[in-house]
Write a structure and sequence with these properties.
Helix content: 40-55%
CATH class of the largest domain: Alpha Beta
Largest sheet: 7 strands, mixed
Number of strands: 11
CATH topology of the largest domain: D-Maltodextrin-Binding Protein, domain 2
Structural class: alpha/beta
CATH architecture of the largest domain: 3-Layer(aba) Sandwich
Strand content: 15-25%
Distance between the termini: 61 Å
Number of helices: 10
Shape: elongated
Order of helices and strands: HHHEEHEHEHEEEHEHEHEEH
């Protein structure tokens, strides 16, 4: 059987590609430069081809090196997944777990669930990242995070999801708004109503438009966050739709707004957990999502 590259050698070629010089790559993987250089030369000998062009200004991968790099990253990822899967089988939800959360969920959900999650899983070390859905999905595919809390429905390639919690939409407007004075409020009442919404890129905008079947939103008055949005409503610029989760968390407290449910209630989005298809941590992501559902069901405020 031919001699095979070691994982350490593959780690070195990846570091060299990322840092562009032997000295910086050696520093990144905590070895001396001669050690890393010797390992790369041995890898070239094993594969029978030149992988790196060495020059005064640094190191550049050859076409063969680029081909090897792609496979090296794949092999290293599979090796990391193997370790994670073995650890999870023995002790799930322990050690570091990198969790992404979208901005329209993070400040309203996390304060309610994090203390209980830490109590339920005392050995987990959660690292949180707040970002928009598309960027969180990129991070999942690139294995920079393990799972993400997002709003559903949201389809994306190589991403799987598990629904956790249904979040109702509420109508919010100044007290003198015509719809605020209606005895009952139906989604059809918004068919001609220009709504203030979040700017493009926030999935809550799309969910709000879909939930109430309205395509009329003022693009010149788009907010970057829910906190900005409610201040725009308070200033009399228009009405909006807000997730009940945010209202229950105090988003509109002391704002003087009229906040009304629809009849029948409008469930505009579901909170769900997402992970990369084939991830070794998929079972843990589902377990984490189910734990969040259990916590919300017993929490004293809001929900559905």
């Amino acid at each position: 059987m031919s001699q095979l590259p070691t994982l350490r050698q593959l780690q070195f070629i990846i570091a060299l590609a990322e840092h562009g010089s032997f000295s910086r790559a050696a520093e990144a993987v905590f070895v001396t430069q001669p050690t890393l250089s010797a390992a790369i030369k041995e890898l070239e000998a094993i594969l029978g081809t030149v992988l790196v062009e060495r020059g005064a200004r640094g190191a550049v991968l050859t076409p063969a090196g680029e081909a090897v790099l792609e496979r090296a990253r794949r092999v290293m990822t599979e090796a990391e997944d193997l370790v994670i899967a073995a650890q999870a089988a023995g002790e799930p939800l322990s050690g570091p777990f990198k969790l992404g959360v979208i901005p329209t969920i993070a400040p309203f959900l996390l304060p309610r669930v994090l203390p209980a999650l830490r109590e339920r899983f005392p050995d987990i070390e959660l690292f949180l990242r707040e970002d928009l859905t598309d960027r969180l999905f990129d991070a999942l595919r690139e294995r920079r995070i393990d799972a993400a809390l997002i709003a559903l429905p949201y389809d994306a390639p190589m991403i799987e999801t598990h629904a956790v919690w249904a979040d109702e939409f509420l109508f919010a407007a100044p007290p003198d708004h015509a719809l605020a004075r209606k005895k009952t409020l139906a989604p059809s009442d918004l068919s001609e109503e220009p709504l203030l919404l979040l700017e493009d890129g926030h999935c809550l905008r799309d969910h709000a438009l879909a939930a109430c079947a309205t395509g009329s939103a003022r693009s010149d008055f788009a907010a970057t966050s829910l906190h900005t949005l409610v201040h725009m409503v308070k200033s009399g610029l228009g009405a909006t739709l807000l997730p009940r989760m945010a209202v229950d968390a105090g988003l509109v407290d002391r704002m003087g707004l009229e906040v009304r449910p629809f009849d029948p209630p409008v469930v505009g989005r579901e909170i769900g957990v997402a992970w990369r298809k084939g991830s070794a941590r998929s079972d843990e992501a589902i377990q984490l999502g189910d734990a969040i559902r259990d916590i919300l069901q017993t929490a004293p405020s809001g929900g559905s």
